[in-house]
Amino acid sequence: MKKLLATMLLTAVVASASAKSPKQQSHGYPIDPVPFTSVKVTDNFWGQRLKASREVTIPLAFSKCEETGRYQNFINAAHPSDTIKVGGLAFDDTDVYKTIEGASYLLQTYPDKKLEHYIDSVLVIVAAAQEPDGYLYTSRTMNPKHPHEWAGSKRWEMVEDLSHEFYNLGHMVEGAIAHYQATGKRNFLDIAIKYADCVCREIGDNPGQVVRVPGHQIAEMALAKLYLVTGDKKYLDQAKFFLDKRGYTTRTDEYSQAHKPVVEQDEAVGHAVRAAYMYAGMADVAALTGDSAYINAIDKIWDNIVGKKYYITGGIGATSNGEAFGKNYELPNMSAYCETCAAIGNVYVNYRLFLLHGDSKYYDVLERTLYNGLISGVSLDGGGFFYPNPLESIGQHQRQPWFGCACCPSNICRFIPSLPGYIYAVKDRDVYVNLFMSNTADLDVVGKKLVLSQSTRYPWNGDVNIKVDKNNAGKFTMKIRIPGWVRNQVVPSDLYTYSDGKRLGYTVTLNGTPLTGELKDGYFCIDRQWKKGDQVDVHFDMEPRTVKANNKVEADRGRVAVERGPIVYCAEWPDNDFDVLSVFMNRNPKFEVVEKPELLYGINELVTDAQTLGYDDKGRLTTTDVKLTLIPYYSWAHRGSGAMAVWLPQELSASRPTMPATLASESKINASHMASSISAINDRLVPKDENDRSMPYYHWWPKQGTTEWISYELPQPSTVQSSTVYWFDDAPWGGCRVPKSWKIYYRDSQGQWQPVTGADNYGTVKGAANTVNFDPVKTSAVKLEVTQPAEYSSGLFEWEVK
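^ that's the sequence the OP posted. Answer follows.
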């Protein structure tokens, strides 16, 4: 956060616009959002996350923008040249915008003049890169004659494919609005408005315009937000234009949700992040225009997600093939993609649908995603990141310090600090309390000031105190969300159900007096003339619960998940001295809640009696009684690589006894390309068929047409006479195919590799056992050599030797 700007820009005169307060505009939503600027979070649970974001994540992101040339791209664009080589990704600019967005949110909670000055100095660079008519896309501007290979020869030529010009606009607008709302300055907002105006001028149905839609959506929701801030309806019209034209241009594929007009769509398909951003934009248009076709379409899509394509952890996007939604009820665990960006997008969708409909079910979904599949995407210290968030692992998954394609880390940068804006909402004289965390809030109720404070240890216990600190609004209705998990509803569909027969309850008291009443759309409503000092105490029964999935979810049949309150739990290796993947749950498990304030920044563990299944030396099934310890899913993968599982077997059909050791599993692996996924080749897990993606696999991508190898250093010299390979092939969409050919070698007594003799069949059937038998050899090492196809890579699930 210091090198580039310190040497080039900190002496620049910051062309900061007036610092007047942001003008309050008519919102247009049926329910008023309460902005992040009105709420200060004082919560221990979320305070730790905000502190990590402020001290680690955002400084890291800014430093990466410097180290990886993100800022240099803007400097180059301000001084274009035919000699500049344009590299990186066409959407690298967005990492700058997203990090500024997150930092702006933080300025509200943690005022910081140094940070504010740093952002201003970055914006000097950004402003200098903008072309006179407002166009701002460094991948073209820095070298117009030889732009980025994804950019096309002219503006908007490849915007429906790879250029990401509208995607960059979307993140720019989102960041600029956050900065404006946090600081009152217009220096970023004016840049964004200028680019948005450029797009509005050049994209449309009128003479001289071109009809284009975003290849990667987000501009739709950003433009709707720009309308809310400026009051200029042309931005909302442009957002609706992008949506109305989708499916009518050259882009007509499911991957980008362009397979049919958006108002005819009723199923979540394609790339999950693109989809979630588009669905958020649809919800915006539905809420802000009242268009019934949009309302009907987004409601159907939401029903499909929550009823058929939603993980227990709140993740969406089942498959790495296209980072996409799978088929209905296709929810694998180990291969679950559940991209962090998709979880963030899912929060955006449900938040907007709440603002449209006012039903607590949208916050039930939002809360599940927030506490589980979203915050799992960043380490507790703020410095490590998941791209996918699987529900099972054998140790091949670990958070990374950054990614070349940094969309998930920079998205976490902007989301976590925005959390204060999701806690409350207002409609006329209705005040919604949607999330439970300690905070103070200044709310506007019919133009009058209301100050509330909330105190709680949620999500570790279910006691919440809400206090009226100031009330100029007189009479209003406080609407307190009673979460679905309290009302015996895992999610607002039949996708998951509680299986333990428990019935939790809740109580609400006002100034010590118990209250009763019927829920309305999931809210407990208290309508009265409020006065300063009034206190509402809410108690939610909070007990460990077991959950079963709809039987149509093949991956979860015969298994249970465990949750307590909004937190989903998992079994992980550091807490259990046995193979957690071999655990067999009791039919009626009893759980002990153990507070661990010193572990993983403070968690509650769950401990229960269980069994592990295995085999003895004669191949007979054995059971062992164990104490199983579970931790919150979001906190896994902080203590090294190893096994983890969310869904635990409770039926024999779903059990996975620990397999006896094999020659391969006890061998040391070496390879022409070492990667963490190489552990898959001797984990004793094999695919059930050629289309099984639930098992881990290893591949040589992106190498193509090369000769590659893997070797086993055997635990002791052994006689080997056969080898079996299960090939990974992700045709037709992926880049891996079965090999052109392969051979087995052994190491001779002189240490030289020799081909085995008498080999009967080097098979290349994908996803099946390809066994080659050969003349027995005594050796200390064997090698698998693979010749890859000319235009593809190869990979494998498992390599056995006997």
